[in-house]
């Protein structure tokens, strides 16, 4: 068990975990977009295995938090909505990974 | 969450998902068939003729037409079949750099292959056009397989490299038709694999009803 103590001066690794990213479907979405420059909705749907409605709902939350940039482009004559992580989103994801590594590092003795 | 998140695997899985459509397999099979098409058609008395006949060169009508068909099938397939079902992604600088490397590898092997094929370099007793073919197909496709993370391409590189060798050996042994059959079967294996993958891909990824 982690030796986290409540109180001033000592950071508890379980606090401040970004719960927006921590949800499994959104974590999957963030991971996909982190390793790509951009992707359209359909590509994300295929890679994450989420349904249309489910993915749409999660993307809305991420966009509302400023983690996603949405850009409408044209592929030939067909419109495509391309999604990419914003700088804020990338920083948030890196921060999340760092904190999770620390969480499991602290639990490694169990 | 107790599993380490391997982001390299996430990226690789995203990239290699495009190989599920079987179009690369069909393309490679058609390309191999195109390369030997004039020999195959001549063997059954149906030559398509030459654009650049020997001794100036060896470029037949069927090679050009079937190679163009292979390219058309590939690009049209990607545009009309794969993208509407899989969507579109842009990959990061690391993946783009690998794609550039593939281009460079192919250019270098093609140049070296041409030097051998045109017998500009000393032969040292080797059949240079054959050596050129093995280099371009075996080495070129083999390296492409590594850089693309496309494992089936190793097998196809071996089939590509082995086909002319087996044809030449069997022809020298007095079995030219058997040699051509080996080439035809190699091409058919690739095309058949591609068709099976494509049909599986179409079942697994129907066109989505929702329009984005």
Summarize the structure.
The complex is a heterodimer of chains A (110) and B (212). With 110 residues, chain A is an alpha+beta fold.
Index terms:
heterodimer; A: 110 residues; alpha+beta; Arc Repressor Mutant, subunit A; three-stranded antiparallel β-sheet; B: 212 residues; mainly alpha; two-stranded antiparallel ribbon; 72% helix; globular
**Helix percent band of chain A:** 40-55%
Shape of chain B: globular
Q: What is the name of the CATH architecture of chain A?
A: Orthogonal Bundle
What sequence of helices (H) and strands (E) makes up the elements of chain A? Answer: HHEHHEEH
Rg estimate of chain B, integer Å: 20 Å
Walk me through the structure.
- The complex is a heterodimer of chains A (110) and B (212).
- Chain A is α+β, with helices and mostly antiparallel strands and 110 residues long.
- Chain A has a three-stranded antiparallel beta sheet with strand order 1-3-2.
- Chain A contains five helices and three strands.
- Chain A has one domain (19-103): Arc Repressor Mutant, subunit A, CATH 1.10.10.10.
- Chain A has helices at 19-22, 24-35, 41-48, 52-64, 87-106, and strands at residues 36-40, 68-75, 78-85.
- The radius of gyration of chain A is 17 Å and the shape is elongated.
- Chain B has one domain.
- Helices cover 72% and strands 4% of the residues of chain B.
- Chain B has helices at 7-16, 23-35, 37-43, 61-86, 93-117, 128-148, 152-172, 176-204; strands at residues 50-52, 59-60, 89-91.
- Chain B has a two-stranded antiparallel sheet with strand order 1-2.
- Chain B starts with 6 loop residues before the first helix and ends in an 8-residue tail after the last helix.
- β1 (36-40) of chain A pairs antiparallel with β3 of chain B.
